[in-house]
Amino acid sequence: MESSDDLNWPTQKGTLVINARNDGSVSTGILHAARILKEGGLVAFPTETVYGLGADALNGEAVARIFAVKGRPTDNPLIVHIDAVSHLKSLAVNIPSEAYALARRFWPGPLTLVLESARVVPPETTGGLDTVALRIPQHPVALELIRAAAVPVAGPSANLSGRPSPTTAQHVLDDLSGSIDAVLDGGPCEVGVESTVLDIRGGEPLLLRPGGVTREEISALLGRECRLPSWQDDSAAPPPSPGLKYTHYSPRAPLYLVNGHPAAVLARLQVLAQHYSERGKKVGLLISSENVGAVACEHMEVLGSRHDPAAQAVVLFAALRRFDEQGVDVILAEGYPEDGVGLAVMNRLRKAAGHRIIDVK
Asked: Residue 211: which of 343, 339, 338 has the closest Cα?
């Protein structure tokens, strides 16, 4: 195989940037990235949801490096990406029949299944739990990478822990250039929020994290409602899923989420914007397209229509990162209905806000 020097790939602080959007170089670039993975390195790669930070999921030392690079707590389990349903049996045991029904309907796609882990999966990957989280991504670059590497690929979001997830290769480089070996640039992600995480081990479906596959779709397939987790963010027990424990998706400025009746939300946003502006604060406003102009604010990001949460999800993390670029001091965000993908959008906004949530009537 050619060396990276022979192929003249650019670097940022020592991280290779491989253009996986150019059809003429896809195979060569992916083969090189696959070799990095097999040798214990870290490669960021695009999925339909967000960019993942990949390592050989069966190599505990390589996986430990993911945690070190991201600054991620080691009790926060990782999602393992595979390329075929047949690989379930090598990574999980006691697989319920419903797992296969869900896989047939939603894979490849933004659904992660939590199953009982096989012994071959190291504790670094599972966060010390007896479960493993598995999915098949719906992105040609991700699938080619997994097939070329011939290993399951652990792949949490390719960002510093707690920051907004990356939906472009540049977002990855903004956070991790110089700390990882390579990034495969496959263009912007189509879904924009992480996968849905579903635990079906106990016979009752438990929605651990909302995402691109909706609660309604899962319930319709299984014929019963998905239960939401009772696990609390301040629990001393390990989180059963990525995205449950610790602050996530946060821009650098504090974000205040105002939720409730739309008219009351806009009134409160206007009061807050004026309050912070009068105190010399640079205010960022995250607003729906229907309400552009309803709140006076110099730095505004339009999330999309209140009636199109899937479109909101695509641009959410990029909008939060643009506020970072603008250097705002505080961000005010409008709340949205929680139907369909709206549940995932609001989950991310609540996590980004932490305890700064204002409910109005």
From this structure: 343
- List the Cα angle 46/314/359 in 5-degree steps: 130
255-360 is a CATH 3.40.50.2300 domain:
no
pTM above 0.90, yes or no: yes
pLDDT in tens, the chain (361 residues): 444 444 678 999 999 999 997 655 568 899 999 999 999 999 999 999 999 999 999 999 999 999 999 999 998 999 999 999 999 999 999 999 999 999 999 999 999 999 999 999 999 999 999 999 999 999 999 999 999 999 999 999 999 999 999 999 999 999 999 999 999 999 999 999 999 999 999 778 999 999 999 999 999 999 999 988 865 554 445 555 555 555 678 899 999 999 999 999 999 999 999 999 999 999 999 999 999 999 999 999 999 999 999 999 999 999 999 999 999 999 999 999 999 999 999 999 999 999 899 999 9
Do 255-360 and 4-222 fall under one CATH topology? no
Cα–Cα–Cα angle for 173, 176, 177, rounded to 5 degrees: 60
Which residue has 């214990």 as its token pair? Answer: 40
Domain spans, the chain: 4-222, 255-360
Q: What angle do CA 99, 104, 109 make, to 5 degrees?
A: 95
Q: Which fold has domain 4-222?
A: DHBP synthase (3.90.870)
> Is 300 within 8 Å of 269 (Cβ atoms)?
no
